[in-house]
């Protein structure tokens, strides 16, 4: 006796692919509506295809918007990082960036408050006054 073949019909979880599938179903429904005999034998007659169309249209519109917002977000993050001076393609010494100015201010304040470096904390700097580990010290096990 031959084994019965198991059939799987997958529904995509990816938004773009699910929208595309729904649009293909709606196109099929539209082409079947033009045929008078097809309406009577339509296996999907009990499904609210108008609601599927509304939800698919909203999904497609919002998906397109989300993709554009993602691009806009990436552009904004890139512009922000370049202004800060922390972009991957920048050196920390790049002139006229926030990092450049903050570093210069730190260096000036270190000169002004030599011996009182903790005062840089008043400006918002994180000051670590713990003793520096010796590079010749044995490693902890």
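Q: What amino acid sequence fits the structure above?
A:
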């Amino acid at each position: 006796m031959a084994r019965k073949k198991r059939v799987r019909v997958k529904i995509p979880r990816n938004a773009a692919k699910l929208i595309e599938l729904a649009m293909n179903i709606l196109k099929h429904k539209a082409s079947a509506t033009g045929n008078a005999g097809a309406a009577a034998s339509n296996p999907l007659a009990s499904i609210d295809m108008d609601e599927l169309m509304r939800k698919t249209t909203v999904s497609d519109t919002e998906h397109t918007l989300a993709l554009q917002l993602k691009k806009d977000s990436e552009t904004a993050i890139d512009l922000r990082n370049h202004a800060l001076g922390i972009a991957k393609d920048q050196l920390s010494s790049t002139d006229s960036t926030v990092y450049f100015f903050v570093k210069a201010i730190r260096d000036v304040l270190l000169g002004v408050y030599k011996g009182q470096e903790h005062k840089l904390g008043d400006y918002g700097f994180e000051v670590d006054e713990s003793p520096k580990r010796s590079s010749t010290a044995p490693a902890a096990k």
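Q: And what stands out in the fold?
A: The helical segments are 15-33, 36-40, 49-84, 98-112.
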